[in-house]
Amino acid sequence: MIRFQTLGGWWSQVLLAQRVQIITNNGPVTGVIGSIPPHLLDEAKRNKPMEIKNMLIDIGADNKEDAIKIGIKPGQQIVPICPFTPMANEKKILAKAWDNRYGCGLAIELLKETKDIQLPNMLYSGATVQEEVGLRGAQTAANMIDPDIFFALDASPANDMSGDKNEFGQLGKGTLLRILDRSMVTHRGIREFILDMAETHNIPYQYFVSQGGTDAGRVHTSNQGIPSAVIGICSRYIHTAASMIHVDDYAAAKELLVKLVKAADKTTVETIKSNS
After folding, report:
1. Residue 128 is part of which domain span?
2. What is the 3 state secondary structure string of 182-234?
3. Which of 51, 65, 109, 131 does the annotation list as catalytic?
4. What pLDDT is attached to residue 162?
5. Do 209 and 158 lie in a common domain?
6. Are residues 139 and 248 in the same domain?
7. InterPro entries attached here (predicted)?
8. Is residue 163 predicted with pLDDT exceeding 90?
9. Suppose 61 and one of 67, 92, 209, 229 were both cysteines; which one would form an S-S bond, judging by CB atoms 3.0 to 4.6 Å apart?
10. Residue 166 above 80 pLDDT?
């Protein structure tokens, strides 16, 4: 049995009995986060969620020596198993880590969309590390690049499972225009830039507030202050082994981002900064 440490905001109740892969130098090793059958638990333990520190991964090894022979070492990455799966409604897609494979994919597509265009700015598009454990890569990138403005590309929790159409974060209702979260109040100038672009081009969007945070929370306080915003979509069941997004939301986010980048000339950036 293998003990493990989670990275980021994993909730203990979504982990038990999940299939995982341990990424070793010999290739991925499949395991399962062990779950004790309720028949073997007393009433007190059945009614109390198991803490992550007490969970173990079973890879089928007979003992420690066997696990070492298989290739298990301390510090290796462990990832959930969840195949990319279109749902019955094929506009909805189930997969692991939409938070933040969405952002990685969109950053790549932005480069593809603009590679043959003479932009009125210098574009940096990429992925940062360790967002979930302290926004660390974003701070390094901001210090290195010192951008004039910044867009974080991130997925946020959908809150539409109850059927309440007034809740923030509805699948299929467009990209998210984030007003504030626990790490940032969105800069007024860049917020208005995004809103005007979406309204002008009839790009579907929805307002959003969050108790979480994104890389923008660290970047907007970097250097002398950087106007920052989030180009996001909502995803059901984030921070679990299986999450769901809507392709129309992704398309809206992509269209909006590309148009914003194409329009961000020197005058526009100066206008954004002056509207604080």
Report:
1. 85-274
2. CCEECCHHHHHHHHHHHHHCCCCEEEEECCCCCCHHHHCCCCCCCCEEEEEEE
3. 131
4. 83
5. yes
6. yes
7. Peptidase_M42, Peptidase_M42_aminopept
8. no
9. 67
10. no
